[in-house]
Design a protein that fits this description.
This protein is α/β, with parallel strands linked by helices. It is built from 14 helices and 13 strands.
């Protein structure tokens, strides 16, 4: 369910939902026959029930629970809830139950009119592929199958390169796999932090091996990274070992990161900025986050999401919104960059609105760093 509330209000609300789940299940089952887990990073709950005799019983229970949450609680709190549920049934406990229920939930979420979805046997192949690729990702790290490409950032007034975004790719058995196909799997299996640490190390290696070209580079940290104590400790060691190059590094976080734990995120970003790295807020405007948090975190720049850029030419409301984002950046003294710029018309509109820094296929697709150095007039061959 999606709620337009302040992060602290969301946390309080979800705590109440958790209590309501306990009451509902406690009225029907012995407390030893059910367990409730709440995800930290997503507004989801996982319920494990034992002592269920048939799939029909669990189906009826799920329907009653959905009605209780979406109807009864909605009336009590005065909010219209849109709750999606996915579930699976097995005669014995096995390690794939959570993945199976996640597949069912995902299928419910991508269909606007589905509220409840059960795990189907046709999902089995997808599940097997996920398990297979989660193992392959771990192997790929040790076998050096990942590599970096770089999408240049431009000053659109003179088309000069002013920086680049570091992007990871996977050469798996001769086939280059784009990140959209493996990052979600890495996130689900809690190994995305290993990829992000690898990218951090390789980015500093790039700075060192191309020391004549002092080009700032940005890397992406997943929201889960900043919650992970192990990730933070290893990242700080890497930053300490390369502190003379920290000023060239920019870390991009998303709005979803700001919704985790404001004090924790602020503390950990401040630790990193001690090494002179910059912090950028990526995909700005596509998720709910309170503007009041922006002055409290050490932001250097904001990226306007491509979903806004795509509509600039034909949607005047979006154009006004982008203008306001640019003005907000000016007021807070943030750099502003537009991503996903693909047409000359988009470029001209952005320049008219006051945004000079851009990246996108109009200027360049992701390329090798040697290609960037050539475009900058420095030959490393």
């Amino acid at each position: 369910m999606e709620l337009c509330l302040h992060p602290s209000e969301i946390k309080h609300f979800l705590t109440n939902i958790y209590k309501q789940l306990q009451i509902f299940l406690g009225n029907k089952y012995n407390k030893n026959h059910y367990f409730i887990f709440q995800s930290k990073n997503h507004h989801t709950f996982c319920i494990v029930l034992s002592n269920i005799s048939s799939e029909q019983d669990i189906t009826l229970l799920i329907r009653n629970l959905h009605h209780y949450l979406e109807k009864d609680i909605s009336e009590n709190i005065g909010l219209q809830l849109n709750i999606k549920m996915g579930y699976t049934f097995a005669n014995n406990l096995h390690s794939h139950l959570h993945l199976e229920s996640n597949f069912a939930l995902y299928n419910a979420m991508i269909h606007p009119f589905k509220k409840i979805e059960s795990y189907q046997t046709q999902y089995q192949k997808l599940l097997e592929n996920k398990i297979y690729f989660s193992k392959e990702i771990r192997n790929a790290l040790s076998q050096n199958e990942f590599f970096l490409v770089f999408q240049p950032k431009f000053n659109s007034k003179d088309n000069s390169i002013i920086g680049g975004e570091v992007l990871i790719r996977w050469n798996h058995k001769g086939t280059v796999i784009p990140p959209n196909n493996f990052i979600p799997i890495a996130e689900e299996h809690k190994i995305v932090y290993k990829l992000d640490l690898w990218v951090l190390k390789k980015t500093f290696n790039t700075f060192i091996s191309h020391n004549e070209l002092r080009l700032p580079l940005s890397i992406n940290f997943a929201p889960e990274d900043l919650e992970n104590e192990d990730f933070i400790n290893q990242a700080l060691v890497i930053l300490e070992n390369n502190k003379q190059l920290g000023h060239l590094l920019e870390i991009e976080i998303t709005e979803r990161t700001l919704m985790i734990d404001k004090e924790l995120i602020k503390e950990r970003l401040n630790l990193m900025t001690k090494y002179n790295v910059s912090i950028s807020l990526d995909d700005f405007g596509i998720s709910y986050s309170s503007l009041s948090i922006l002055p409290e975190i050490p932001l250097h720049s904001i990226k306007i999401d491509r979903s806004f850029i795509n509509q600039l030419e034909h949607n005047m409301q979006i154009r006004k919104l982008v203008k306001n984002i640019i003005q907000l950046c000016n007021d807070f003294n943030y750099d502003v960059i537009a991503e996903g710029v693909e047409t000359k018309a988009q470029k001209e509109i952005l320049l008219e609105l006051g945004c000079v820094k851009m990246q996108g296929y109009l200027f360049s697709k992701p390329i090798s760093f040697r290609r960037i150095s050539f475009l900058c007039g420095i030959n490393f061959f």
